[in-house]
Amino acid sequence: MDAKREVIKNFSNEISKLHSSIKQLETERQHKKDEYELILAERDILGTQLIRRNDESALLYEKIKIQQTTLARGETSFRESLLSFLILANFSPNVNVPTLFFTKPFSNIIIEKL
């Protein structure tokens, strides 16, 4: 009889240890699940921010293209106007006309007085 009680006591102790392990593992699993959900939420936020930044970049690039086109048109118009001015100034020898060298972009124009 004592041997049976000892076996039952050992099984009871083993069951208690197993319940304790299960409880600890369940707590750890819940912690990992919460951490996983936080990471998913952060991923979703970062994905949304990335999409927004990408849209902003695309809009800025489009604006840059428009500005470059406008600038190129302005440069062409300026060159045509200046050429007309220089042609007209050649008819009047008393006009002091600056000399412009158009071999570089307008940001690098060299102006010399005659």
Task: Please explain how this structure is put together.
With 114 residues, this protein is mainly alpha-helical. 78% of the residues lie in helices and 4% in strands. The chain has a two-stranded antiparallel ribbon with strand order 1-2. It is rod-shaped, with a radius of gyration of 41 Å. The relative contact order is 0.04.
Q: Average pLDDT across residues?
A: 84
* Beta strands, count: 2
Largest sheet report: 2 strands, antiparallel
Strand order within the widest sheet? 1-2
Low-pLDDT parts are: 99-104, 109-114
Structural class: mainly alpha
Our Rg estimate from Cα atoms comes to 41 Å
Number of domains: 1
Estimated helix fraction: over 70%
Order of helices and strands: HEE
How large is the share of residues in beta strands? under 5%
Question: What would you say about this model in short?
Answer:
With 114 residues, the chain is mainly alpha-helical.
Q: What is the secondary structure topology, with strand pairs?
A:
Layout: H1 2-90, E1 99-100, E2 111-112
Antiparallel strand pairs: 1-2
What key attributes describe this structure?
single chain, 114 residues, 1 helix, 2 strands, rod-shaped, disordered C terminus
